[in-house]
Design goal:
alpha+beta; twelve-stranded mixed β-sheet; 259 residues
Length: 259
């Protein structure tokens, strides 16, 4: 394939900003909403774009977003990109057909690394009368960080989530049992990525599912769509999400570029 690259195909160039008109086309082409984990990597990635309608975002040594308006030429664009800006691997959603098909054409290895939940069915969970889920207040930030050190990147992230109105505190019988997040993914705010973390000493008691269930129910009442995801190795989170009615039909996929 590399030998068939058209010589007239415009090269990629490093850009300071994402070409938003092109990214809007990319997001509109996805049959399911974007993934928050990838969105966070996109924000701090390198932007590379071609004048002929293709762009890519590379976070460190990993491709995290790629799109070409002419999907038939996507493998050619991807091959040209990696010649200009080498990288070893990539991450993508299994429903991102442009990069998935291009990677298959280029014979890249693919391994599923996460569960993406974009569907939810009705469930009824037992909820203790003493269970509460409320928007976090400033006084809750230290407790949220202490509770979720294995979930949040740091105290700054906890504070930012609070400032954005995206941080929730879960309690039972007046004691904190965990926290939840609800992060809008699109400009309309209609698609919201939700997640949770439970205090280590309060795990395996059903609180994680209750947090997710409460967040999802509230968003659905507001006419919004809750989505979520977890690592393939995080079976406890997968079970909690499934108990709250979420169904995984899609995956986060790691792509590996051959030597």
């Amino acid at each position: 394939l590399q030998q068939t690259l058209p010589s007239h195909m415009p090269a990629f160039a490093r850009h300071a900003d994402i070409p938003m008109s092109l990214r809007d086309l990319y997001l509109a082409s996805l049959p399911e909403p974007q993934e928050w984990f990838l969105e966070e990597l996109v924000k701090s990635g390198e932007v590379w774009a071609s004048s002929s309608g293709a762009y890519a975002i590379i976070h460190k040594d990993r491709l995290v977003e790629f799109y070409a308006e002419n999907t038939a030429d996507a493998p050619l664009y991807l091959s040209k990109l990696i010649k200009q800006r080498p990288f070893k691997s990539g991450l993508c959603k299994s429903f991102d057909h442009v990069i998935m098909n291009a990677a298959k054409t280029l014979c890249w290895a693919m391994v599923e690394t996460g569960f993406l939940f974009r569907k939810r069915v009705p469930v009824t969970l037992y909820k203790p009368d003493t269970f509460r889920l409320q928007l976090a207040q400033s006084a809750d930030l230290a407790e949220a960080w202490a509770t979720g050190r294995d979930f949040y990147d740091g105290k700054d992230e906890v504070a930012q989530l609070h400032d954005a109105g995206s941080l929730w505190i879960a309690s039972n019988d007046g004691k904190t049992v965990g926290s939840g997040v609800a992060i809008p993914l699109d400009r309309s705010g209609d698609v919201v990525d939700i997640g949770m973390v439970t205090r280590p000493d309060q795990r395996n008691k059903g609180f994680a599912s209750l947090v997710i269930d409460e967040l999802a129910n509230q968003l659905e009442r507001e006419g919004k769509r809750p989505i979520c995801g977890c690592a393939e190795t995080n079976l406890a989170s997968k079970a909690a999400l499934e108990n709250a009615g979420f169904v995984s039909e899609h995956r986060l996929v790691q792509l590996t570029v051959p030597d």
